[in-house]
Amino acid sequence: MMAGTEQGKVVRKYFLECERIAKASNIPQPAMTQIQILAALAQQMAEQEQRLLEQERRQNEVLARLKAVEVEQDRFNSPCGHKYSVMGFAKLRGLEISLSQAGSKGKKASALCRKQGVEVEQIHDPRFGYVGLYPESILDQVFSTNSKDKAIARH
């Protein structure tokens, strides 16, 4: 057939190499001792644990990034922060104020919102009818100016 040609020599060399590889793979591996089996299993478990730890690290990283995105989205949706009623804000801060004080602070918060061009949302309240929801930053100002006024009045 092509025994004497250059192409025949290449084909023969290829098949001899294939035969050598096939024989090498058929060589039986020596049986492993129990200690070697345990060592191999321990090695596999260690590698698996490393992969698991890496996945947990990546998951924590993704969760941190997700939290940052949620905070940014919340900031974008509420540029002035969260919105509260005066009574709700006082309760959140652990402050006790009377209904008349709440009304007074609500008027101050409304005035500040108008001055800064911030829209005041209205919600229904069983005690007052409708009350305003003010940004946290506005309520911080209203409550901090009131505490400064009290400090000045005491001196």
Describe this structure in words.
This protein starts with 5 loop residues before the first helix and ends with a helix. With 155 residues, it is mostly helical. 70% of the residues lie in helices and 9% in strands. The longest helix is centred in the middle third of the chain and has 44 residues. It folds into two domains: 49 residues; 72 residues, Orthogonal Bundle (Arc Repressor Mutant, subunit A), CATH 1.10.10. The radius of gyration is 38 Å and the shape is elongated.
The number of helices is: 5
Mean pLDDT over the residues: 83
The CATH class label of the largest domain is Mainly Alpha
CATH topology of the largest domain: Arc Repressor Mutant, subunit A
Biggest beta sheet attributes: 3 strands, antiparallel
Task: Please give a quick description of this structure.
The chain has 155 residues and is mostly helical.
Provide key terms for this protein:
three-stranded antiparallel sheet; mainly alpha; 155 residues; 70% helix; single chain; Arc Repressor Mutant, subunit A; 5 helices; 2 domains
Q: How would the blueprint of this fold be written?
A:
Elements: H1 6-25, H2 34-77, E1 83-84, H3 86-93, H4 99-116, E2 121-125, E3 129-135, H5 136-154
Antiparallel strand pairs: 1-3, 2-3
Helix pairs in contact: 4-5
